[in-house]
Amino acid sequence: MTPRRVLLIVSGGIAAYKSLELVRLLAKAGMAVTCVLTEGGARFVTALSLQALSGEAVHTDLWSLTGESEMGHIALSRSADLVVVAPASADLLARMAAGLASDLATTLLLATDTAVLVAPAMNVRMWTHPATVGNLATLAARGVAVVGPDEGVMACNEFGPGRLAEPPAILAAILARLDARPGDGAGRLAAAPAHGPDHGPDGRALAGRHALVTAGPTHEAIDPVRYLANRSSGRQGTAIAEALAALGARVTLVSGPTALPDPPGVDVRRVESARQMLAACEAALPADVVVCAAAVGDWRAAEVAAHKMKKTPDAAPPTLVLVANPDILATLARPGASRPPLVVGFAAETQDLERHAVAKRLRKGCDWIVANDVGAHTGTMGGDSNTVLLVTAHGTEAWDRMPKHEVARRLALRIADALAEAPPAG
Ligand code: CTP
């Protein structure tokens, strides 16, 4: 079997050093990697390091390629199953969006008809600048997939989104992209299901499908400045929305308050309370699949004070009277014309995971439950990885601990597989 080939473009930025780890992970996963190093990238990593890890010559110069053969750059880009730009600097993204061909990297990107995945990395202000936002939207509209950036403290000591996604997350996004493309399955990893889903009109497994995803916590107001919330970061649900979009689905992500940037190419509706989340979900129907990953507050204050509640000296603290919130998952799973053909819920438990998850699937009326242990010792809530059980009508599967991006990728593939036979939602 010929291995899948990735053309990796490494552009400038402090994060370029992570491309070495990415090459190592790709090689370990059995993929062939051809590296292209931009002039900026070469200031941070050497061609020699990339060559040693990939085992192949590294390309840096547009003119040396055309010297060998007139069509050298076209052949280079077309021989790949996927073109990956990691890190993708603000400058390179701008040149891609503008269609420039000013160096080897941009010439390849303009000449290729191969799918492209970019992993942006830059200063937070550059990432949030309207120019970059506009460039990303242009690229997403052209079908370019995006992974990251992550949020955190950056080399410039600023905090926010802009940090290159970690190499395992980039690898997961690469695998999702490769799995999403039609092909003979050569080079697929064991992680992908042996029975690949059928492919929709644009060649991707979920093309023509609408997926609705909920993510994050809810905030239930007590008064204008206080609220009830939980520790959900929204990472798992947001990663699922991204993974479904990478398979070609039109995705509506209804998200509670999170610190995560909107995933490009996903229609994000931001809400605060459970009741707003339910209304946004119902407005987004019909859908082929709904994945309820949000940690919805079960209760809200019976009455929300119109003004900030004040302490009264010597008076007892106020008593908070709670009332139940609507159950979004159970509502969407209710039999009826608007019920999506596949309804997937999550179960956040701190004990007896499988027993609670099996019972929850039946109680909520959903088709699958992705159960995770959210006990403080697991570090799942707010963390980057997850250990889940997939509970269906046919039984329970235990998945190994893996990054949330990889849980998302696998779940998206299972969803594509399950929907392969279903007619599109009207
Ligand atoms: N859920 C929902 N609306 C709610 C509560 C939960 O849509 N008001 C969904 C969650 O998004 C998740 C599933 O229901 O998909 C299970 O959530 P979980 O918090 O595990 O369970 P609860 O419904 O709170 O039940 P319990 O209190 O028994 O754990």
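^ cytidine-5'-triphosphate complex. Residues 5-179 form a domain with the Rossmann fold fold (CATH 3.40.50.1950). The chain has two domains: 5-179, 210-419.
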